[in-house]
Specification:
Length: about 575
């Protein structure tokens, strides 16, 4: 608690008051509030991404005979050009991939790693308090070894169909010839400017030339990124981690180091030693379905499976016919899952995560039995799952951030990808190299390594991967995949996905109906409702308050991308809160 208060205090005293009023720290990326039309598509192959140009590029790849993995590469490389505020080659990714021919599900971890040079106290001031979060996002020390390029390369080596280079054609063209900036792209540059860009001359030069935003009707070009993409298309991952791109990246960081007090940031050795981790997907039965997501260092996947398990037991016992009861039980399920992920989850190379215990039926039932059907409980404590008996840990507070994207693809052969990628804050650290935005993912670690003398699972250590909320999901009916979903949104990602899964599976809503639904989230002491008059219908707001809920309203910058199989066809929809697009092949 003391750390949480110092974290909020640091934010307050670091930012000007007008900026504090403008930024929603739960969901800092702006939403398309005026957008009313929801992009949908159906067919034997469907793509949903956060940007129309990325969706079109992925569809073109499928039309050329590429598969779902090729489409992921095409989409991600285009997103690096047109949505750099959210993801890119300077960030990290999680991929959940269903190989139809092998009837197997794979989890590829391209999360950033801490440099071998980092120190455990790097986010601590001389007086022992946490460094202000906003200050940390602008530090070279916040940049983790990027994993996205390695993930795309390894995924292509294992699953790809088209030549690697063919999947870069659209992104190279858009970076070189330019694209018309979208309103969200321009709003994101403005937000980055408010967060602080004076530390990064390269950002100002590219995104705010002469101190002004790019022109709305003039193609925006990123020639350095076009060159980087061309090099990667020819040289593959080796070019990024050991070639000219790697050398230029380290040279740029060293140049910046000369402008600042000495800091510990990534080195050539860090880049050369980076490896994608092949993880075992985590799955759990929910009613008649099997829900699969990403394991630690993702805490989001665990949270989704826990929340659904608790919600199912509570629903069976108490019923969810009334809207208010469903929302109450959902909020409690999310709150209890949050308590566990903030306490037990970290990179398993440091502390053994009691993963099996966290997902066992007996433990889920134990957590559900603690919840009262007629009253809310704020700040529930973490439970004690099997396997945690020798672990005496402390919890960390929830983190800020939100520069993330999600996409889903199914191809005509039935291969399926659910892929989440991030640079952490809006435009990451705002440092650039080779036209690429560099992440600030190391601020996802706990800023203090201990609390009240107890270690925190998500403490920073050399070569460790920070806990993530990213949680790509694939749902199975029997042995057949029937749904894929994911979202950006920082700490709230598993909240958004749990909302979506209940809508898709319990209420049998279409993808279009799911992304249109108003969302519920939770904080330790509040139940947070998306701003909408819909909550006033049926007095849901008042009924939740009568159960003890303290209600907040918020704008959520979710970016749900979902595809669902129905009557032999795949149907997809993009979240209207962002600028996404769904496209399909008949």
């Amino acid at each position: 608690m003391r750390y949480f208060l110092s974290f909020i205090s640091a934010l307050f005293y670091t930012l000007p008051l007008p900026l504090l009023a403008q930024i929603n720290w739960n969901a800092p990326e702006s939403i398309d509030a005026k957008r009313s039309r929801i992009s949908t598509a159906s067919g034997q192959a469907v793509v949903v991404t956060a940007n129309p140009l990325a969706s079109d590029a992925a569809l073109k790849t499928l039309e050329k005979g590429g598969n779902a993995m090729d489409a992921v590469i095409s989409a991600q490389t285009v997103l690096a050009v047109v949505e750099p505020q959210s993801s890119g080659l300077g960030g990290g990714s999680f991929l959940l991939y269903w190989d139809q021919a092998k009837q197997s599900l794979y989890a590829l971890d391209g999360r950033e790693t801490a440099s071998a040079q980092v120190k455990e106290n790097m986010w601590r001031t001389s007086n022992g308090t946490a460094v202000p979060w906003l200050q940390a996002t602008k530090s070279l020390s916040a940049i983790g070894v990027p994993g996205t390029t390695a993930l795309l390369w390894e995924g292509h080596q294992q699953f790809g169909s088209l030549p690697w280079e063919a999947n870069f054609q659209s992104s190279i063209h858009l970076a070189k010839e330019g694209f018309i900036p979208s309103p969200r792209f321009l709003r994101s540059i403005s937000l980055a400017n408010r967060l602080g860009i004076d530390h990064s001359p390269s950002f100002k030069s590219l995104y705010l030339p002469n101190g002004s935003l790019p022109k709305q009707k003039i193609p925006f070009r990123n020639q350095k990124l076009a060159s980087t993409l061309s090099r990667l298309a020819k040289g593959g991952a080796n070019e990024f981690y050991r070639g000219k791109v790697a050398n230029e990246l380290i040279e740029n960081l060293q140049l910046q180091q000369n402008r600042h007090i000495t800091v510990n940031t990534i080195t050539n050795e860090d880049l050369a030693s980076y490896k994608v981790q092949w993880r075992t997907p985590i799955c759990r039965k929910y009613k008649s379905w099997k829900i699969c997501s990403f394991p630690p260092p993702s805490g989001g996947g665990v949270a989704v499976l826990q929340a659904l398990g608790i919600f199912e037991l509570l629903s069976n016992k108490n019923g969810t016919q009334a809207n208010t009861n469903r929302w109450h039980l959902l909020s409690e399920s999310l709150r209890y899952a949050d308590a566990d992920r903030s306490h037990w989850i970290g990179d398993p190379i440091d502390w053994p995560v009691p993963l099996k215990g966290l997902l066992e039926d007996d433990y889920i039932e134990q957590r559900a039995n603690t919840i009262q059907p007629q009253t809310t409980k704020f700040r529930p404590l973490p439970g004690k799952p099997k396997g945690s008996e020798l672990l005496d840990l402390a919890s960390q507070p929830r983190t800020a951030g939100g520069g993330t994207t999600h996409l889903v693809v199914v191809d005509v052969e039935g291969n399926l990808a659910s892929y989440t990628s991030s640079v952490e804050t809006v435009f990451g650290s705002r440092y650039l190299s080779g036209g690429m935005v560099l992440n600030n993912q190391l601020t996802d670690f706990s800023f203090l390594s201990t609390n009240s003398g107890k270690p925190i699972a998500n403490r920073i250590k050399p070569k460790k991967r920070p806990m993530s909320s990213m949680s790509p999901v694939i749902v199975f009916s029997g042995d057949r995949p029937v749904l894929a979903v994911g979202s950006p949104g920082g700490w709230l990602i598993p909240h958004y996905i749990t909302n979506a899964l209940i809508g898709a599976l319990d209420l049998q809503l279409s993808p279009k109906e799911i992304v249109a639904k108003k969302l519920l989230s939770v904080e330790p002491n509040y139940t947070v409702l998306e701003k909408s008059s819909a909550w006033l219908k049926g007095n849901i707001h008042q009924e939740l308050e009568s159960l003890g809920h303290q209600i907040k309203y918020s704008s959520f910058s979710s970016g749900l991308a979902i595809i669902k199989k129905h009557n032999g066809k795949w149907h997809g929809a993009a979240d209207p809160r962002r600028e996404g697009k769904a496209v399909g092949l008949q």
